[in-house]
Automatic annotation (TrEMBL):
InterPro entries: Acyl_CoA_acyltransferase, GNAT_dom. Residues 1-140 form the N-acetyltransferase domain. Pfam families: Acetyltransf_7. The keyword Hydrolase does not apply. Keywords: Acyltransferase, Transferase. This is GNAT family N-acetyltransferase. One of its GO terms (molecular function) is acyltransferase activity, transferring groups other than amino-acyl groups. It comes from the Bacteria. It comes from Gilliamella apicola.
Amino acid sequence: MIREYQAKDLDAIMNLWLQGNEQAHNFIDPEFFKQNYDIVKMLIPMSTIYVQDINGVVGFIGLTENYISGLFVEKNSQHQGTGSALLEKAKQHHKELLVHVYKQNSDAINFYLSQDFAIVGESINEETNYPEVLMRCNVEHKVKIGKCAL
């Protein structure tokens, strides 16, 4: 079940955040994420967060307006539609979504490409000095009239 963030989710979300970053970004020194842990923990409640709760939090997406500040799924729940479902939830609330992805994180780039995102820019991340791409998805919201979608 996808639901909105609750304060009781914070520790589970932070565990997913730390493990997910260390797994997906093995080219970055793990100390970088540990040093940013407390800052992220403070910022999480200020974002719009949706969690996938299946007997506990197995994934979450964090949004700052239409920017995806994080999408993490626990390792054992990956490739089962959790990330797609969380992204779909975000698409329900926005006409456009943006996300930065490290160029070395080809799994994430391929995931977003499969979800109708396109690469629209490249830059160097100021904190890590690693190259990243900016990806954008323009979301089409269909108007439903009766049983038909227009």
